[in-house]
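Handout, page 2. Input:
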Amino acid sequence: MSGMARYPIPARQTRVELQVVNSRFIATAAPVFSVDEARAFVARIKAEFADATHNVSAYVIGHGATVVAHSTDDGEPAGTAGRPALAVLRGSGLGDVAVVVTRYFGGTKLGSGGLVRAYGDAVRAVLDVLPHAVRMPTHTVTVVTPYPYFERLRLLVPAHRGVILQEEFGVEVTVTAQFPVERLPAFRSALQNLSSGALQAEVVETNEETILPLPTASAGASWTNGQEDV
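Output:
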């Protein structure tokens, strides 16, 4: 699993709303990892906006050459809604992503070109603010540290692409953190150097398919084909 292809995916469901002439366009994007999950997501958004004029959907499962992609116009003129939404998704570099663009018609027709632009713009708008993550195997570790080492430990974890999950304060501090599997050896080595061998990172859990948030959306480019650029 540690050699799996890595690509950016949505970190969580995200939503934006646009006004185009008199119509409201609400774009909701989320991570999905199978066609069934995608269909369930679309059904849930349709139920949430059951009174909307249209709920146009598109999704991409997988990444690169091995993808399952689908879109629907949901009553809009053929090719004016689902297809441009899917084109934006496919051009985003994201995998395992679904989007539903909900439209409340405001009384003014947009025309075919206007619809293509509106649906494409709605998907671009939600992708612009969508936080990215990667799916990878991780180790969750605990480190019990005396207070003099605590602040330096807090800096050491993110320096090795770790994420602090919990801090418990007692006589000493127990820090729980999560690391990509291949990052843990370097963290352990740095921890040994920091503490002259006094501190240990104990693995308490291994997860083969953790969704690990990326620091910024643009950082998604750092994880491709199982390689890191950093």
